[in-house]
Specification:
single chain; mainly alpha; Non-ribosomal Peptide Synthetase Peptidyl Carrier Protein, Chain A; 2 domains; 6 helices
Amino acid sequence: MVIDIGGQEMLREFRDFAMRGNVIDLAVGVVIGAAFGKIVTSLVEDVIMPPMSVILGGIDVSNWFLTLAGDKAATLEAAKKAGVVTLNYGVFLNVIIQFVIVAFAIFIVIKQINRLRALTERQAAAAPPPPPPRSETLLAEIRDLLKKWSGFSLAPAPPGSASRFRASVLDARAG
């Protein structure tokens, strides 16, 4: 028994899906996000934590850990090499700092996008409406001239007064 899953049709649908704008935008966002994550990691480990270590008296925060099982080690790296079970709260602190930086950066970007969106909406609301098409302007002029010359309105007649139009045309011809 052979199950046909669509073959060429399925490949075409997948291609159409993958080439849609949103999927490509998402892929670009993931790549930029990965690069941004590396920048933030470097910012925390190479720029923020060294001065913090100096302020704390030369202590490397990323080296803070508790030994849960095994012999005590001087550094986290030595504990990992010895296979000691550790609770690495210094590394966790670094990750929290990285998260706060990324969250703040995303907050700033979203805030600016919302500000620009609101500015665009205000500008669109403040812009005068476009003039009516030339044909509508001409039709309005013709309507106004007909009203002036004939003395009757083109407004709909009330029910049962079909002869009103006929009477107003005859009055306009007579006058």
